[in-house]
Design goal:
It is a single chain. With 376 residues, the chain is α+β, with helices and mostly antiparallel strands. β9 and β10 form a beta hairpin. α5 runs antiparallel to α6 and α6 packs antiparallel against α7.
């Protein structure tokens, strides 16, 4: 879901990260508030005040989303779920769970925690704005508080739409899961409804656009695309987890992997290995000891005229948590590591020796076959 993220801070053990796409959202919000909403609400203020209110409004939105997702994470922790953290991106934020909720009850309470927290925050902000309005002309502060109060009500309402994986869709899934005692079936139905709602939003956005409301229509269309895509990918993620649940890495690893010696020249690596096997990573071994690995990106950093004089041993990366996994680790951990690092192959090491190599294409091929058979 995410591209490049930056960790901002930790709160109660949860890591709060921001995707670079959120900066686009922040800039658009500041601009729209400073040039549109606040001048319409409060006439006669200086331009600098409008821009200050816009910045405050964007920061308030940031805090509101973190607060919303924090309560999801807190309730998830109460039910024993492993939470990876909170990430803010272009369309808001998400509390990253390591697994599905253990029961319909856990799913329900986890889902409603966010909207309830947003309603509470909205009421508090609007109440404070009313209190301040009766004590003097503090228009900029009141304006920001009113905006954030209304925004949190909207945030709660939008998330309660029955479109999985939004909170309302999760509530729907919890109810269906409880009725049918079948998580996969409940997720499929909730995701289908979410995809349908996303398609409806896309159609509404297109209609708005052709009626001359290009700004609002474009946003509605983009949000519809996001909801539809998120609904489909959420169901696929559940299928992946179920297909790989409890499966160890050794089931997918290639034990007789193609290896290199440290003395192998870069030229020989390119001509006899990369061009022959088409791999982007090769293990490097010396005797029975695993030295590390060498990648295509490292080779690209060596000048062509130096290929004959440079050796693989000079380039090899040592084994680390970024490129190595144990044979008895869960294959889902290997997938998460590949996603995090952008690698398609990992070393599988045991006791300082190379046990094999695990490749993304082998995992995905297994998933495709298993899902195809089970769908039948």
């Amino acid at each position: 879901m995410f591209g490049k993220t930056v960790t901002l801070f930790r709160i109660s053990g949860f890591e709060v990260k921001i995707d670079w796409s959120w900066l686009i959202l922040g800039a658009l919000i500041i601009w729209s508030l400073a040039t549109g909403l606040f001048p319409a609400w409060y006439e006669g203020l200086a331009p600098s005040q409008y821009w200050a209110m816009g910045v405050a409004g964007a920061l308030g939105l940031f805090v509101s989303i973190v607060f919303h997702e924090f309560w999801h994470s807190l309730i998830a922790r109460k039910f024993g779920l492993d939470m990876k953290g909170i990430t803010l991106f272009l369309f808001g934020g998400v509390a990253e769970m390591g697994d599905e909720p253990p029961s319909p009850r856990a799913e329900f309470f986890l889902a409603v925690a966010g909207p309830i927290s947003s309603v509470v925050m909205a009421a508090a902000l609007l109440g404070l704005s009313l209190l301040l309005r009766g004590q003097g002309p503090v228009t900029p502060v009141i304006g920001v508080l009113r905006y954030l109060g209304y925004l949190n009500f909207i945030l709660a309402g939008f998330n309660l739409l029955p479109a999985f994986p939004l909170d309302g869709g999760r509530v729907l899934r919890a109810v269906l899961w409880g009725l049918w005692n079948d998580l996969r079936r409940a997720t499929r139905v909730a995701s289908s409804i979410g995809a349908g709602l996303g398609a409806a939003l896309m159609a509404l956005g297109a209609l708005q656009f052709f009626l001359g409301r290009s700004g609002g229509g474009l946003w509605t269309l983009v949000i519809g695309l996001f909801v539809r895509g998120a609904a489909r990918s959420s169901y696929q993620q559940l299928l992946f987890r179920r297909a790989l649940e409890g499966v160890p890495v050794r089931k997918f690893m290639v034990a007789d992997a193609v290896t290199l010696r440290p003395a192998t020249s870069v030229e020989k690596l390119v001509e006899d290995y990369i061009y022959k096997y088409h791999f982007k990573m090769f293990p490097v071994v010396e005797g029975e000891r695993l030295v590390g690995c060498v990648t295509l990106d490292q080779v690209k950093e060596v000048a062509r005229e130096d290929w004959a004089s440079r050796s693989v041993g000079e380039l090899a990366q040592g084994c680390s948590a970024e490129n190595t996994i144990g044979p008895d680790e869960d294959v889902m951990k290997a997938l998460a590591l590949m996603q995090k690092t952008g690698r398609s192959r990992l070393l599988v090491a045991e006791g300082g020796r190379l046990a094999g190599v695990i490749a993304l294409k082998d995992i995905m091929g297994f998933i495709a076959l298993k899902l195809d058979l089970e769908e039948q």
